[in-house]
Every structure is written in C-alpha cells, then in structure tokens.
Amino acid sequence: MRPGQAVRLAAALVYPRRCPFCDKVLGWLPDCPDCATELARLRRAVPRLPATEHILRDLTGAAAVWRYDGCVRQAILRFKDGGRACYGEILGAEMARAAFGCNYDIKHGIITFNGVLPLTRFDIVVPVPPSDRGRGYEPPALLAQPICRALNVPLEKRALRKTRPTHTQKGLSAAQRLQNLRGAFCVENAERIEGRRVLLVDDVITTGATVSSCAAALMKAGALEVFAVAAAHTEL
C-alpha cells in the first residue's frame, strides 16, 4: 500500500465517509442510494460546456459534471463553507471520471483509480485561487488532488495568485463579472507555466468570468493552452 493510501485508509476508519449530497454516513458503501435519482437528473449528458453559454476566453474549452442545483448545490455550499473538506475527494474523482473517463473504485472508503490514463493529457493542474488564502482552506485545490492522481499530473497549487480585492460577483451581469475580475489574477513562477498545457480546476463555473480571467493570466505567462473543469455549472 502506498503511503498516501495508508493515510486515506486511516482517515476513513476515524472519519467514516459521508455522502457529499445528503451528508449521510456511507461507511463502506460506494454510492448513496438515496441521492442516485436526483444526481442522474442533474448530471450533464455531455460534460463539455458550450462556448455560446459561458464566457470561455483564453480557454480551449471547459467541462462540468452537474448542474448547480438541488443536492449538488447543497454539497458544494457545505464543501466551500469548510465543514466537509472530505467532499473534495469524491467530487474531484467524479470530475476526473466525467470529463476524462478516469474510472475508479471505492474499497474500504478509499478511492483508487484504475490506472488507465485518458488520451487527453495535461502537463500541470492549477486550482483557481481562493478569495481569501488567510482562511487556510482552498476548495479548488482539494478538488484538484484526486484529479492529479487520476491523470498522473503534478499539482501547481500556488501557480495563480489574486492580486487585488474584488467586488462580490453576486448580482453582476456576465460583462460586469468579467470587468470586475480583469487583471485580478497573476502567475507566480512563470517558468513553471511557460510551454505547459494547463488544466484549471474550480468548484463552480457561473458565467465563466473567473476561469477566463485565470486563463488570461496563465496564457500571458506562456501556457500553451488552458482547459477548465468544475464540479458544477449554472445555467444562464
């Protein structure tokens, strides 16, 4: 057993797995039977997001697993609030499976990917930086960890940094959101980005303004291309 697996097994024994979507204890159950119907309704048949429905500037594309509604919305709100960091493991694994075909098994509460790498390849995985790093809790980085294991690609957790405070995005139009975030992100250690194909990870894609602004900074630093993936998206 790898060291990382041993740690995850110990954590699973002390803190039994909970369903991200209803918060019930799952234990060794791989899936929650109570949430299956609603998750099937919210899951996107095609993960890739149409460029006509979101702002996808400086991106080669974007994908999301579910629509941001119902039990998915509740799961992500609990996850982002910091109460359920463990949700990041299953949400990230589902992102890897839906967007890139990385199948996994759950045994004794541990997620193990089957080792078959997808044809789509990236050089690095970069999470969208949180608004406040002082909290010490970074949901996109937690989502990115299982994706990195699935794709066998390194995580550049500190590649992006927010350069200035921004107004809340709530209630703003797509154009206003993009303007609010213009120039709000920069790349640290550009030499680690230059010439790389980047997978950008976020929890929710709303209008696409955040991932587009992050992609602009990555492309400015010399990235070859940037593709974004999120757990959910909103319908405009």
UniProtKB/TrEMBL annotation:
It holds the Pfam family Pribosyltran. Belongs to the ComF/GntX family. Residues 143-228 form the Phosphoribosyltransferase domain. It comes from Candidatus Allofournierella pullicola. The lineage of its organism: Bacteria, Bacillati, Bacillota, Clostridia, Eubacteriales. PANTHER family: DNA UTILIZATION PROTEIN YHGH. It comes from the Bacteria. This is ComF family protein. InterPro entries: ComF/GntX_DNA_util-trans (IPR051910), PRTase-like (IPR029057), PRTase_dom (IPR000836).
